[in-house]
Amino acid sequence: MVLVVVMGVSGSGKTTVGSCLAAKLGWKFYDADDYHSSVNKKKMASGIPLNDEDRIPWLCTLHDILRREESSRQDAVLACSALKKMYRYVLVSGVSAVESNQTEKPGENVALKILFVHLDGPIELIARRLEKRRGHFMPLELLKSQFDTLEPPKAPENFITVSLEKSLPEIVMEIEKAIFSG
Description:
By secondary structure, the chain is an alpha/beta fold. The protein is 44% helix and 14% strand. Helix 1 packs across helix 7 (168-181). The model is unreliable at 101-107 (pLDDT under 50).
């Protein structure tokens, strides 16, 4: 059973890559954008970046979805920005990542094993993509704030970084190789 989170800034292609990967492998696909509250979507549409307080409940919901898939032994792909190390930790550990004084029973809230796929590319390339995108709540003006917030994954996190300057089939193939070789 494999859980993959395709991560990166807005416009990096998370949904496109994640949905293509899931379709190719016959896995479930989730787009984290579908789980934002209407308040969060309005904030972003108004050009106001989300803060940690906006994101934590959303990330806990996404963790619960991944936990459910893990419990049912279902392979799944989630497209989610996961810009900060703390956000990725919430996806892995759930609410226990933010509530250090929570009393847990032994065996409860065991961390999920997730492969994070960081879609990485230059801001100019991503800005061109965002300029062409229509009907999305995330405006181009917030791209710089996304790059400012981004904490690229590093050891000991379980991740790979994939260049956005490759074609979609090359990106999907690279992710597949990482999944099935490790």
